[in-house]
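Quick one, probably user error.
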C-alpha cells in the first residue's frame, strides 16, 4: 500500500489535497506536509478545504496557500487526509472520475471512499502515516515538511499525552526534532498564544459547568451570544471541552456549541474507559474512542437531556 502510494506520487504531476471541514492541527499539518513534500519534488499541488483554517495555525509558512474548495483546479490525483467520510471534505464522487482518489486516514470509522484506502486506526495522527509514506519511498523531508508533520502529531496526541501515543510516535517525533523542528515554537504558537478575548470566552463557558451521573459526565456549553459578547468565533472555543474532562471523577467531558439557533455541535472527550465514538454515533456523528463529535438539534435543555440519557448505562 505504502509503495503503491509512493509510486503514484512519483509518477503523477498534479495533486489536489483535501481534508475535513473545520480542520484541526492534524488536518492542517498533514495537508501542508504533503503539499510541502510534493512541492519539493516539483509537482503541481493545490490544497483546499471547505472552511478557512483557524487563525492559530497562521504561523505556519504555507497557511495562506489553503484555498476554498470551490477554487478546485484540474488534477491527476486527489488525496484526502484525516477524513473519515467523503461528505466531511466536500469532494463528490463525480469530482473523482478519471482521477486517482487516495484516502489516507486513521479514523477506525473511515468509510473507505477512495480508490486507494490507506487506513490505520492505531496511528496516533495522519502525520505518522505520511512519515511512513515519505520514509519508505525515499521522499525527502525538509525542515518545513518536518514541522508540519510535528504539528499534526503534537496536536492529535494532545501533546504526546493521549493513549494513542506509542513508541513509534515518540521515535518519529524525535526524528523530526533531529531534522530541525523547534518544539517550543510549535507549542507556543498553538497553546501559549491565546487572545484576551478567547480567555474571556473561556470564563463565560466555565461558568456553565454542570456534572451528571455521580460526576461521571461533565458538560459545558457555549452560545452564539457568548461569542458575540466576547467578539470571538467558533474556532476560539477549540479545546474548551478538555476542561470538562479534566475534572477528577469525570469519565467524559462534553462541550455543546451553538452553531445556529437550536443546532448544537457536540464534542465529547473520554478519559479512556468510555468509547465516545460509539456515543456520538447514536446521534449520527463519529470520531475516535477518546474524542468524537456529533450535531444535535433542539433547545439547549433538550440536547442536554438527550446526551445524558445516552450515557444512562453509566448509572
Ligand atoms: Mn486526526
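Nope, works fine. Designed sequence:
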Amino acid at each position: 500500500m505504502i509503495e503503491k502510494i509512493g509510486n503514484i506520487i512519483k509518477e503523477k504531476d498534479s495533486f489536489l489535497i483535501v481534508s475535513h471541514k473545520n480542520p484541526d492541527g492534524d488536518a492542517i499539518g498533514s495537508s501542508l506536509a504533503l503539499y510541502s513534500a510534493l512541492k519539493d519534488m516539483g509537482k503541481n499541488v493545490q490544497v483546499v478545504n471547505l472552511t478557512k483554517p483557524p487563525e492559530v495555525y497562521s504561523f505556519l509558512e504555507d497557511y495562506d496557500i489553503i484555498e476554498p474548495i470551490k477554487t478546485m483546479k484540474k488534477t491527476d490525483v486527489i488525496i484526502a487526509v484525516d477524513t473519515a467520510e467523503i461528505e466531511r471534505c466536500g469532494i463528490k464522487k463525480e469530482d473523482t472520475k478519471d482521477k486517482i482518489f487516495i484516502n489516507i486516514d486513521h479514523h477506525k470509522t473511515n468509510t473507505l471512499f477512495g480508490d486507494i484506502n490507506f487506513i490505520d486506526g492505531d496511528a496516533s495522527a495522519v502525520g505518522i502515516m505520511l512519515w511512513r509514506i515519505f520514509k519508505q519511498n525515499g521522499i525527502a523531508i525538509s525542515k518545513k515538511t518536518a514541522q508540519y508533520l510535528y504539528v499534526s502529531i503534537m496536536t492529535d496526541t494532545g501533546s504526546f499525552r493521549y493513549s494513542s501515543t506509542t513508541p513509534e510516535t515518540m521515535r518519529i517525533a524525535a526524528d523530526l526534532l533531529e531534522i530541525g523542528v523547534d518544539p517550543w515554537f510549535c507549542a507556543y504558537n498553538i497553546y501559549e498564544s491565546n487572545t484576551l478575548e478567547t480567555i474571556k470566552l473561556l470564563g463565560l463557558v466555565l461558568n456553565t459547568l454542570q456534572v451528571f451521573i455521580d460526576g461521571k459526565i461533565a458538560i459545558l456549553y457555549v452560545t452564539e451570544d457568548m461569542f458575540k459578547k466576547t467578539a470571538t468565533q467558533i474556532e476560539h472555543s477549540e479545546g474548551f471541552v478538555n476542561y470538562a474532562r479534566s475534572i477528577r471523577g469525570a469519565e467524559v467531558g462534553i462541550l455543546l456549541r451553538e452553531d445556529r439557533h437550536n443546532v448544537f455541535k457536540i464534542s465529547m472527550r473520554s478519559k479512556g474507559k468510555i468509547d465516545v465514538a460509539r456515543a456520538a454515533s447514536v446521534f449520527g456523528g463519529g470520531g475516535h474512542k477518546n474524542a468524537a463529535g456529533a450535531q444535535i438539534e433542539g433547545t439547549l435543555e433538550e440536547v442536554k437531556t438527550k446526551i445524558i440519557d445516552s450515557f444512562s448505562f453509566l448509572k
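The chain has two domains: 2-191, 196-314.
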